[in-house]
Write a structure and sequence with these properties.
about 130 residues; alpha+beta; 2,3-Dihydroxybiphenyl 1,2-Dioxygenase, domain 1; five-stranded mixed beta sheet
């Protein structure tokens, strides 16, 4: 049977360097690739330690610019699992990450919603341990 892997998700940003600064410097993602494609376009890929990568795409027109931060209609659309919520939450806050709520406990684990500087909503989640 064929194996399917979600390799990357495109995230439209206003500026490549601003995207890199947030995802690499504030969240600690790895900068996997930053290739100049000419004519002001770059292939910029960032990735957390595990899981799918984000392809940071600079908005190319008014429609794409209007979609920045609202690519999922205002819902949380990105989910970042961690194995130490308290440490990650503290580190993110110290790096200037904006949380929209205090941490809460849900049936699936500990969670808090944060926004990237572009308006995209994320869930920071420490999944509940399997019993």
């Amino acid at each position: 049977m064929t194996t399917l892997t979600l390799a990357a998700i495109t995230l439209v940003v206003p500026d490549y360097d601003a995207g890199i600064a947030f995802y690499r410097d504030a969240l600690g993602f790895n900068l996997v690739e930053d290739t100049d494609l000419g004519e002001g376009k770059r292939w910029v890929v960032v990735r957390p330690d595990q899981g799918a990568a984000l392809l940071l795409a600079k908005a190319a027109d008014d429609a794409q610019t209007a979609a920045i931060g609202n690519q999922s209609g205002g819902r949380v659309s990105l989910f970042l699992n961690v194995d130490d919520f308290a440490d990650t939450h503290t580190r993110f806050k110290a790096a200037g990450v904006t949380f929209l709520e205090d941490p809460r406990t849900e049936a699936y684990g500990t969670v808090a919603v944060f926004c990237d500087p572009f308006g995209n909503r994320w869930d920071l989640i420490e999944p509940k341990a399997s019993e």
